[in-house]
Amino acid sequence: MNSEDKNDKTGQIEISEEDEMDEVAEDMRAEGGDDKNYKELYQRYVRLAADFENYKKRLAKEKADIIAYGNEELIKALLNVLDNLERALSHAEGPEEDTKAVLEGVRLVHKQFLSLLDKFGVEPVSAERGLEFDPRVHQAIERVDSTDVESGHIISEMLRGYTLKERLLRPALVSVSKGRGESRDTDSSADKNNGGDGGNSSGIFDLTDEG
Hints:
3-stranded antiparallel β-sheet, 6 strands, 15% strand, 53% helix, 3-stranded mixed β-sheet, alpha+beta, 6 helices
């Protein structure tokens, strides 16, 4: 094969395979073989190889399309929510502002948006008052004294968390009860022993081992 054939990328497969076919055919003729049958079989192989290359290219394109347009259905559904939200805002800016009607419109948009999330497998994380803290789906941002909520249980939800088909998208940010057994003096001494921040400067508490 000459250098021009090697540099011809568009016909590289055909040229190299033809050269190889001719070489093998010469060997078969030298051994008394039937090079006609061999050429037919080899041509069939060449076609199969070309088909396989096209198949790989098609798969690569489909994969690229999935990455680029995989969220198309979700985005189309979100556009409907956006349309309703813009209608509510337009109504609020009208000459005769009706606060009650605007509020009702926003509530409908909120309901539509939650329904859309549910359709795509997005669900809120349970973080009701009194629920036991679960470090797998909850993140504590503060601990609060409480006389009616058991220690290690949620007092309030600061930011709602969500899962996508059982995979955590973001944890629920919650405040957690310290119970009634821990006094402020105990907390103060603990803070001093830990540099004044309880040993946790980020404000996020590790409640994994708490009951």
